[in-house]
Amino acid sequence: MSARDERPPLTTGPSLYDYALFRHGIEPEERIPFNGYPLPDGHPPEPSPPRLRWQEAHRKVTAALVPLLGDPDPVRAAEAVHRQTVALAMPHRTLRAHVARLVPEDGDAARRTARHLVRTGTSAAAVTVGMALLIRLGEAEDVPHLKALGMLRGLATAASAALDPLDRQAAALLELRGRISSDPERALLAAAATGGPEHTRTALLSLPDTVLSERPRRLAEATDLHGLLRAHPGDPELARVAMRLLQGMCRQPDDRTEILAYGPAVLVYTLLLAHADRLPPTPDLHALLLSTALDLHSGPAALLDWGPGSRQALLDALEGTLSERAEGGPPLLADWIRRHARLPFARPPAAASPGGPPTLQVAPVQTEVDSSAVETRLLVDGLPLLPSLFRSGSGNAPEYLVDDGGLRAGPEPREVQLAEAYCAEGCCGALYVTIRRDGAEVVWGDWRGAVGPPPPEYRFDAAAYDAEVERAELDHSWCWPARRTARLISAGLREQPDLLGRWDLSPVWLSTDHREPHTTVVRLVFTPPDGAKDPHGDPLRLYFDWRLPDDGSPPQERAAAALERIAQSDPKGFAPLARGSGKLAKSLGYSWSQPGVDT
Question: Which of 222, 220, 291 lies closest to 251 in space, CA to CA?
Answer without folding.
Answer: 291
